[in-house]
Amino acid sequence: MFLGLSAGGIIAAGVFAFLAIIGVFPRLIGKTRTNRHIFLYETVIIIGGVLGNVSDLYEFPLLMGGNMVLGIYGLAVGIFVGCLVMSLAETLKALPVISRRIHLAVGLQYLILSIGLGKLIGSLVYFSGNFGK
Fold this sequence. Notes:
Layout: H1 2-21, H2 24-32, H3 38-57, H4 66-101, H5 108-127
Keywords: Membrane, Transmembrane, Transmembrane helix
Protein name: Stage V sporulation protein AB
Transmembrane segments: 6-26, 38-58, 70-92, 104-127
């Protein structure tokens, strides 16, 4: 059990680091002009990660207000996914700059296509249900 929790903690730290690197958190802080509350942001991000992991491990029944909680959760996830998509779109804007710097004259579309196809094939293999058996 300890090994599983340790591996989960490492993966969660990697996900948070990825989100910080692509600029989701700094962009939100900059857009809302709340630079003075960075400590609060850090605390809320850590608490959210911990509570998300705990709620994933243990299923807590909601006796009252389940639809309200589901609505709030859906809104929060929608906002998060929107911010993540915009950060990834800005990252993709950097691909032409990178291609000019490494002198990639032709083939950028093939590079993007191969990345997308690799993600598609990996997802199909994983979700086919035969992976790891």
